[in-house]
Amino acid sequence: SQTIHQWPATLVQPVGSPLSLECTVEGTSNPNLYWYRQAAGRGLQLLFYSVGIGQISSEVPQNLSASRPQDRQFILSSKKLLLSDSGFYLCAWRARDLYNSPLHFGNGTRLTVT
Amino acid sequence: AQTVTQSQPEMSVQEAETVTLSCTYDTSESDYYLFWYKQPPSRQMILVIRQEAYKQQNATENRFSVNFQKAAKSFSLKISDSQLGDAAMYFCAYRSGGATNKLIFGTGTLLAVQP
């Protein structure tokens, strides 16, 4: 069966520090991968998605970047965090070859920028 | 661009009763998919139910069913025999059938279940 791992679960970082959140998927190949952010009491905002190694689409211009160095690895990064980067970050994957496949989410990372 | 609207920020239901959560969407596409996700206090996103736009029959998963009105661009979720464990934030989501594969979420409805 497929599983998605996302870490760390919780992170507290000072303003101006770098960020690296990692997400890996097991049990599937060639997944579509996604990073979402959820601000407190708000809906989910799509940040980045990837349909293949090295292919990244950005949805919202911002302080963050994403990379996909391997087929099942998706990394969210920042060189210098802002207070506004605080939130709950969710990684997700979807089977590319199944037309009606849903998104499967990781457990999320709660990021607090102080 | 596609949008998803959930007009009920909060809802409440008595245990064992039925509740309906509303969702409308805006799209010019004919091929798309609709989903309801549940987010309990643990904040894990759990798929509740899905609907293909080309299917006229409403999807059903145990106590959960949808009322899909394609012409009205409406996709409501009905929870029957509500249980305490149903208390969560519920998100409606839209995905294009095209190559973009993006899932667009509504702002969510917080459902409380009263014992």
Please outline what is shown here.
Helices cover 0% and strands 58% of the residues of chain A. By secondary structure, chain A is mainly β. The radius of gyration of chain A is 14 Å and the shape is globular.
Features:
heterodimer; A: 114 residues; mainly beta; four-stranded antiparallel beta sheet; 0% helix; 58% strand; B: 115 residues; six-stranded mixed beta sheet; globular
Written account of the structure:
- The complex is a heterodimer of chains A (114) and B (115).
- By secondary structure, chain A is an all-beta fold.
- Chain A is built from no helices and 11 strands.
- In chain A, strands 2, 4, 5, 6, 9, 10 and 11 form a 7-stranded mixed beta sheet that branches. Chain A has a 4-stranded antiparallel beta sheet with strand order 1-3-8-7, with no helix packed on it.
- In chain A, a hairpin with a 5-residue loop joins strand 4 and strand 5.
- The mean pLDDT of chain A is 92.
- Chain B has 115 residues and is mostly beta strands.
- Chain B contains no helices and 12 strands.
- Classes of the chains: A mainly beta (114), B mainly beta (115).
